[in-house]
Amino acid sequence: xxxxxxxxxxxxxxxxxxxxxxxxxxxxxxxxxxxxxxxxxxxxxxxxxxxxxxxxxxxxxxxxxxxxxxxxxxxxxxxxxxxxxxxxxxxxxxxxxxxxxxxxxxxxxxxxxxxxxxxxxxxxxxxxxxxxxxxxxxxxxxxxxxxxxxxxxxxxxxxxxxxxxxxxxxxxxxxxxxxxxxxxxxxxxxxxxxxxxxxxxxxxxxxxxxxxxxxxxxxxxxxxxxxxxxxxxxxxxxxxxxxxxxxxxxxxxxxxxxxxxxxxxxxxxxxxxxxxxxxxxxxxxxxxxxxxxxxxxxxxxxxxxxxxxxxxxxxxxxxxxxxxxxxxxxxxxxxxxxxxxxxxxxxxxxxxxxxxxxxxxxxxxxxxxxxxxxxxxxxxxxxxxxxxxxxxxxxxxxxxxxxxxxxxxxxxxxxxxxxxxxxxxxxxxxxxxxxxxxxxxxxxxxxxxxxxxxxxxxxxxxxxxxxxxxxxxxxxxxxxxx
Length: 482
Fold this sequence. Notes:
The protein is mainly α. Helices cover 71% and strands 1% of the residues.
């Protein structure tokens, strides 16, 4: 494996010129990784924007959570939260489904943002679309806090999601293009930790800001900081080389090399060499449909895509479900978020020692079995919270693993399309998640049953996948099939 990597470095003029990783890349990664905090805040904010609230018909005295046909207005228990979108717009009884639809539309926005800004970043570079996404995130996030009805709130949250999806895809691509191959796996997983920390800090916002307007405003205003990235972030030299802007790429590479303590004399020659190599490589591209033309590749594509669906459905679904488990919502969410940081770190070790296949099968089983146990263990806040957290811990490791797996499984000629397809399927899972999480209002055992069975199916499908750890990445469709 080391010989293959060393060969890869020798063939990559950019890595050879600026180093696989150094002070310059670490600084850029630190700056970019901060963007993951608002990504987590906005994706998980529904937990505190629409938390469970006791209610009753305005004519009653006690909060019985009973829907009456002749009831025209409701009153709410404001002992925990001053105001939520549920109490403000009466999203209970026949309108209860609207709070789930809000989150589904938000996740659709993330998907649209991934696609739109993915295209824009290929056409206009990584930096400008990233800055545009940050600016849109700030505007739409702040505007959402002043929504006067559900329609305005949901529309603005959709725009916020498009922007958030844009920051996700552009920041990840920029980071991966600056890091050498040997460290790309590790940095790709560490990239998830700021999201975990953002999720962990969310209960603090929720605890001190019990009104949904101020809560939404507080998680949106930090995006002001990212406007300074206009001066801090460089363009990706790899992208500049792909479109022939060699002089600009050379300047950035020289700055990076100086910061990393490397020689700068031959950088111009290296840049010219890489520009030629990239233009040659870009000639060989294939449609995403090519993944379904041959039997083995088709089966593997379906298997890995289903596992992305599992991660999207169970990660966001179980996170929301934990917010509905009896007990202190702030402590419940904080505990469920805290376990994700060690899970992300464990996934680095597990993928190195066990490989992608065994890691994915093992932790799918951990997630699935722990969620299934919720259906048979006697109802208590502590036991259900513990099992839910174990399930979320397992699925967090799976999420980090499928990112690596998809990147290594698909042939080079369709790698971007394959990973894009997988990510799209994950977003579909996250769009379904809020409806599954709130099935507990209908039947308490339904959500953990769904969150238990789906990962076990994913684990079974992994059996047909090859383990890609330490293997040469497939370049052609023929290699991918073999």
